[in-house]
Write a structure and sequence with these properties.
7 helices, 295 residues, 35% helix, alpha+beta, extended, three-stranded antiparallel beta sheet, six-stranded mixed beta sheet
């Protein structure tokens, strides 16, 4: 909006900004280069989040393999109908039907070209207006064609340490952003804060291997226990033993998860603050539910 209405900061705003950062305001790259000199890399918390930007590319002009296959199937069906009508049509209507056949045939060639482009490039999507944009999940099941800007900000000076424009979601962004921050700051002695969109086992594994302390929200689990009395929120956490007590208070559940398959690589064990799988509770915890079902 400030670009459209040609709004600009006045001299007081600029002076206050210079006073806050204690240096002449430069580009984002200048702030990144200056980050080591203002002590934002030692024992501080760095917050990381993303911003979705809508691209100049509609959903109709974004294609994946499934969407192209649906269009081609529809065109094949229409061509069969037009060919059948053409065989039974008189001379007056044949030109009209033939024009529709030529139109559908050209559409078929266009979609086949997009399908071939997907196979040649190995990409999962194609955007015809803005080629670099991709269809991304913005919230819940709502999607938009656009970009995703990953940004890292320190909590002390409120300065942008790093940023990157991507066309992917947040699930695989944590590791790359941590490695970039390590390169810029020259250390891993900081705490990184993420929301639940970044909670991915492989990315947490990367952070553990780098030695970076991370804090990330855990997504809520949709699955529930057969008996609602044994859902996740009914388990009480014991800070001394690092376990969860079963609602019957007869059993304990260890708080640990494996982020990689043991057969492929050495598993990384991480402590968490909520149980991930109620199925590891002994079966007699479900006795009330089972008795009710039998009766």
């Amino acid at each position: 909006m400030w670009l459209l209405q040609q709004l600009a900061p006045d001299h007081n705003t600029i002076a206050n900004f210079r006073k806050i950062i204690k240096s002449h305001p430069g580009s984002i790259s200048a702030h990144r280069a200056h980050s080591k000199t203002i002590s934002i890399n030692r024992g501080q918390t760095h917050c990381r989040d993303s911003t979705k930007l809508r691209a100049q590319n509609s959903k109709k002009n974004n294609f994946n393999e499934k969407k192209i296959a649906q269009h081609l199937a529809y065109i094949d069906k229409k061509l069969d109908e037009y060919n059948a009508e053409l065989a039974a049509a008189d001379e007056e209507n044949k030109q009209i039907i033939q024009a529709e056949i030529d139109k559908q045939t050209q559409r078929q060639l266009n979609y086949q070209a997009l399908q071939q482009q997907l196979e040649d490039t190995g990409e999962k999507q194609i955007s015809t207006t803005d080629p670099d944009s991709r269809q991304l999940i913005t919230r819940n099941n709502i999607t938009e064609v656009g970009y995703n800007v990953q940004t890292t900000v320190d909590d002390k000076h409120k300065l942008i340490i790093d940023y990157k424009l991507t066309n992917t979601n947040d699930s695989k962004a944590m590791g790359e952003m941590l490695q970039s921050a390590q390169t810029i700051l020259g250390t891993t002695g900081f705490t990184a804060l993420y929301d639940k969109g970044y909670h991915t086992g492989s990315e947490i594994k990367t952070a553990v291997e780098m030695g970076v302390e991370i804090m990330t929200a855990i997504p809520s689990v949709a699955a529930c226990a057969p008996n609602p009395d044994y859902n996740f929120d009914r388990f009480d956490y014991n800070n001394l033993t690092d376990t969860y007590n079963c609602p019957q208070e007869k059993h304990s559940v260890q708080t640990a998860i494996t982020t990689s398959k043991p057969k492929r690589t050495r598993p990384i064990m991480l402590n968490i603050i909520k149980p991930l799988n109620v199925s590891i509770v002994p079966s007699n915890c479900y006795a009330p539910k089972m008795q009710k079902a039998d009766s």
